[in-house]
Write a structure and sequence with these properties.
This protein is an alpha+beta fold. Helix content is 63%, strand content 11%. Strands 3-2-1-4 form a 4-stranded antiparallel sheet. Strand 2 and strand 3 form a beta hairpin. The N and C termini lie far apart (79 Å). Pfam families: RecX_HTH1, RecX_HTH2, RecX_HTH3.
Length: 219
Amino acid sequence: MKTSGVITAVHRDSKRKQVYLIDLDNEFAFEVHEEVFIKYHLMKGTEIDSNFFAEVLRADHENKAYLAAINYLSYRPRSSREVERYLIGKEFSLELAERIVEKCTREGYINDELFAKKWVEERLRLKPRGAYMLKMELKQKGIAPSLIEKVLGRIEYEQELDAARGLLRGKLARITAPIDQKTEHKLLQFLLRKGFSHSIVQQLRNEWRTKNWMEEDDE
C-alpha cells in the first residue's frame, strides 16, 4: 500500500455514495468517508506524505466508529455504557469507544439521566417492575449509581403500587379456581421477584383480601 505521493485520481464509490476512493501516483491507495475527504481537502494534485497519510486514516477510522454509534442510537435510546460495549464489540478500541461516547454525549445523542428516566417510565407502564428490579436493570445498563438513585427517587409510592396492582390483576384474571393459601403465597412471591418491596406486597395482600379494588374494577 502506498503511503505517500500525489493524488492523481478521486472516485466516488458506486455503491457507497459517501465513500471516496483515492489514487496516489496512478495507483489505488485508500478510501475515506466524505466527511474526512472534505476535512482534509483530498483533491486531485494534493501531495501526501506518510505522516499526513496516517493522520487521515486515523480520522477515517474514528469517523467509522462515530457513524457506527449514531446508527446504533438511531434504533432506540441507549446508555453510554451500551454504546461503549457495542463499539468494542465492533472491534474498536476502548479508548476510541470512550471518545466517541463523549462526543455523542456532548452532541446530545446520549443522555444517561434521560435514558434512565424513560426506561423507568416505560417499565412501569408496559412491564411493571419494583424499584429493586429497576435498580438492577439500570445497573446492567451501566447507569451510574448516583443517577439511578436520582431517577428512582422520583418514583412516587402510588406509582409503584399501581404498577404492582396491574401485575396482580393480570395474574388473578387468569385464575378461575378459588384462591387458596398456597396460590396466594405464589402470587405474593411473584410480586417480590418483580422487585416490589415487602411493604407494597403487604398492602396489596390486604387490599386483595378485602376485594375492594377488585370490586371497583368490576363495577
